[in-house]
Amino acid sequence: MLTQTPEQTPERLADLHPIRVLDVDGRPAIRYLDTGEPGWPAVVFFGGLGTSAGAFSLTEFARVQRRRLRLRFVSVERNGFGDTPFMPGIGFQETVDDVLTVLTRLGIKRFSVVAISGGGPYAAWLLERVPERIVSVHLAAAAADGELLGQGAAGELLGNVEAIAADPEGFWDYPPGSPVQAIPGFAEACRAEGRRSMGDPRRAAAALRHEVELLSTTTLPYLGGLSARVYMYWGGRDELVGMEHARTWQAALGPNVVLRCFEESGHDVQYVHWKEILNDIGRGVQV
After folding, report:
1. How many angstroms from the chain centroid is the CA of residue 36?
2. 20 to 30 A from 196, CA-CA: which of 56, 168, 216, 222?
3. What is the pLDDT of residues 85-96, one digit of tens each?
4. What's the pLDDT score for residue 34?
């Protein structure tokens, strides 16, 4: 159940953690969010389609619980969103390179991974690259197969990136009946993330078109080298990333998977059940 207390809900979720900048040779700087608790178990966070590194802050309505579990989150901004310039030709491998560069700079060797929605394929390529460094994996309505994304409600939504770029706040609207509406400040934080991630409509349209093309043509890489436990969280009413994606992940990951299906949830399961996700991560790092 989603419950809130005043100390769990900052006034401005979207501005809770500053975006840091890492200068690298020969290319634009890497922008990333780090909750910054040295020595705590690290978690790499991949936000959904078209999100900035700051999208992680939307989950910090549960920051008291996160800190009680001593979890440090790191999120690296993707090509063309937030204040990261758009560069044609950047794909999954280059994104993984950026993530690993940031982790190296922070001195993080082993880590868990959380991926939401369109962040799923990026997480998959990170898992494929360094399976031995993964503590646990947590996939919340995470896209798996590009062909599936081209169908139904997802195909209709992703077919008009110009409309998304023109109204990034509307892109974050959740239905009036969604439990996330009960989180104080959450709707405002979502609108702020839309403005931050896609502030320049022309650049946002180009970046979105590029990311949609990546997501729409991908299949999961070979994940047989991964031995870490995987947890998946799906909404039974999710019309954007349905259970077919969960089954694709299961086929790629083998038997070491725990699937939690919440029949009453839609494409809000990642926030409605964020506390359960935190608890699963916390149990994994204590093993």
Report:
1. 18
2. 216
3. 999 999 999 999
4. 97
